[in-house]
Amino acid sequence: MKLIKNKNRERFEQHNFLGIGIEAVTYDDLYALVDGWIEDKARRSHHIAVINTYCIMSALTNDRLKGIYSKADLISPDGRPFVYWMRLFMRRKVDQFDASSVLIKLAEKAEEKNYTFYLYGGHPDVVRRMKENLERDYPYIKILGHKSPPFKALTENEDQRICEEINRLKPDIICVGLGTPKQDYWIDAHIEKIRGAVFVPSGAIFDFFGGRVKRAPKWISKMGLEWLYRLFSKDFKRLWYRYTVLNLLFLWYFLLQNFRIKNFPVRRDIRT
Q: CA–CA separation, 217 vs 80, rounded Å?
């Protein structure tokens, strides 16, 4: 686990992708971090940010979102092109931290570590099927509870009841599937209210594990083309702008950054 120090805190080595400092991290690093984070259930919870192109492009025009990513406890690379770039230019071992792989890796490790889980988000039928499918694929997994929030703003009392339920159950891993940026806002608002857990923004994996959307074959994912497979799925209308226009804009800005024509300084916030 190679850490570097800055004036705020220790961090893994980072590469600047348009102002987001993505860390060169592996799953072995993650397991060590999670073990330390969940050791004390009275502490604040921790946030694993899984950063893809859409996250970066959203953060360019959303200062609140950029601040949430910058103070996450781990800022990990979701997109495989990020992983290849960091391996090539940082000469570091880096793993891809897409939300599906993060959940699968933690579920597999739960057989040894006894991690416990809570699922928050998705349609009621989807989150129920997700729980059933995870329990089928990983018979040893302990999913302590699940909640599909209503499609409206929660009242203070409703939100408090949810926090009380989760704190009573004391899960180690909370998968939050509300979509970007809603799930990021929810994590930021609850990281102090819910104690001793690790938040994983899970987005589309509720649909994958809940059976609403079929995940790309492994060979497509290994080529870094899962985005193309998803583009031509049933979510085409929602994803076409994200995977065409925003991806092209990202490449353009990244070229400008690397030729030092435009500067995208990394923001460094502190979460105590």
A: 15
Residue 78: Cβ within 10 Å count: 24
Q: What gap in Å lies between CA 226 and CA 175, rounded to an integer?
A: 21
Please report, for the chain, the start and end positions of each structural domain, with discontinuous segments joined by +.
Answer: 12-258
What average pLDDT score do residues 38-48 get? Answer: 96
pTM for the full predicted model: 0.90
Kindly tell me the burial class for residue 7, based on how many C-beta atoms sit within 10 Å of its own C-beta (0-12, 13-18, 19 or more): exposed
CA 17 centroid distance within chain: 16
155 closest CA partner among 167, 146, 144, 163 = 163
Residue 177 has pLDDT above 70, yes or no: yes
98 in Cβ contact with 105 (< 8 Å): no
Q: Hey, which residues does 77 pair with through a beta bridge?
A: 51
140 CB-contact burial (10 Å; exposed 0-12 / middle 13-18 / buried 19+): exposed
Spatial CA neighbour of 241 closest among 221, 255, 252, 227: 227
Identity at 88, one-letter amino acid code:
L
3-state secondary structure of 117: strand
Amino acid (1-letter code) at residue 241? Y
Q: Are 195 and 45 in contact (CB under 8 A)?
A: yes
Q: What's the token pair of residue 84?
A: 């290849």
